[in-house]
Design goal:
CATH architecture of the largest domain: Alpha-Beta Complex
Number of domains: 2
Order of helices and strands: EHHEEEEHHEHEHEHEEEHEHE
Bound molecules: NADP nicotinamide-adenine-dinucleotide phosphate
Strand content: 25-35%
CATH class of the largest domain: Alpha Beta
Largest sheet: 7 strands, mixed
Oligomer: single chain
Distance between the termini: 17 Å
Length: 306
């Protein structure tokens, strides 16, 4: 792929890759389609990508079967295991390919009883939600607001927060109200640019923390109490004010954190986390999946299957 609209996605032949020491090769059977892939495709990540020659292979979420294990791997993974992984794309290394070589610690058993299609929806957004909660550093009983709660990231934030004993207020459109409530949000308010007003109706002094999956940025700073915490997902950092701690969630720094991804696996197995799939696409139709994701309104992840 070179950069462009969804039509720029094309099938290319790449040379076989092999697992070196400390690495694992995965035959990928399913790769989730995420908003970041559309940015890798349309060139808004060109600055980061240009160090490598095209073709560029997007994709950060993979599930499949291990088919090579390099020397010195100590995570217990074996050839034939069903696994999932976050892939940090670089050049032609990405999750939209049949075969990928990863550091062993990035490769974790898929949750028992899940298909490749389901399992691939967990790693990247699950780890992002995990990192947001780690950065917010809240304690049981404290309050968390989540915007974009119907989305993949927002949904995992809501579910992880509930598993940790937080009180969650989340936004949703009318049509998604029941979905977000089912994910466990204690209070669901109508989404919109004025969502801060509705959150403050419930928590007049503000919430302890906010995870801004809808990228509302300044508009939702007023919902955070003095001395509270705000984490963004697209690099936003608010101007210093009222003792609020602003952090930027950036999941790439959790690449290779075996324990964190394995903990997410356990939470799926104990049904604390729900894997949501909207539809599957063969590689030759992945452009349609990009178009559909960019149009908004998708609930559950779109997944490419090989
Ligand atoms: N920094 C990182 O490491 C990292 C990692 C993962 C994700 N992200 C970012 O996190 C964001 C969420 O990702 P995702 O995969 O969860 O996307 P998603 O599944 O598309 O979810 C986004 C959700 O926000 C909703 N939304 C859009 N505008 C809104 C508004 N004004 N108010 C409230 N909700 C609104 C969307 O609804 P509609 O579909 O109806 O528009 C959708 O339900 C994206 O910007 C993504 O790039 C960052």
């Amino acid at each position: 792929m070179v950069h462009g609209g969804p039509e720029a996605l094309e099938i290319v032949d790449l040379p076989e890759v092999h697992a070196g020491p400390g690495q694992v090769r995965v035959r990928i059977y399913a790769a989730a389609v995420n908003p970041t892939d559309t940015m890798a495709r349309n060139g808004s990540r060109a600055e980061q990508q240009k160090v490598d020659p095209p073709p560029y292979v997007p994709g950060m979420d993979a599930a499949g079967i291990v088919d090579e294990v390099g020397d010195g791997v100590s995570t217990g993974v074996r050839v034939g295991d069903a696994v999932m992984a976050m892939v940090v794309p670089k050049g032609s290394h990405g999750a939209y390919r049949e075969q990928v070589v990863l550091q062993a610690r990035a490769v974790v058993p898929a949750p028992a009883g899940t298909t490749h299609v389901e399992a691939c929806t967990l790693p990247m957004n699950g780890l992002t939600a995990r990192q947001s909660l780690d950065l917010l550093d809240l304690s049981p009983g404290q309050t968390l607001a989540v915007t974009g709660a119907a989305g993949a990231y927002g949904g995992y934030v809501v579910q992880l927060a509930k598993a940790e004993g937080l009180t969650v207020i989340a936004d949703a459109s009318e049509v998604d109200h029941a979905l977000v409530a089912a994910l466990g949000a204690d209070i669901v308010v109508r989404r919109g640019n004025d969502v801060a007003t509705r959150i403050l109706e419930h928590f007049p002094h503000g919430v302890d923390g906010l995870a801004d999956g809808a990228v509302l940025n300044e508009k939702v700073i007023p919902t955070v109490r003095d001395g509270g915490a705000f984490t963004s997902v697209r690099g936003f950092v608010g101007a210093p004010q009222r003792g609020i701690t602003f952090t930027v969630t950036s999941v790439r720094t959790y690449d290779g954190d075996f324990e964190k991804l394995d903990r997410l696996r356990q939470l799926v197995e104990s049904r604390a986390l729900t894997l949501r799939v909207a539809a599957t696409y063969p590689p030759e139709r992945v452009g349609e999946a990009h178009r559909r994701l960019e149009a908004g309104g998708t609930r559950g992840r779109l997944v490419m299957t090989f």
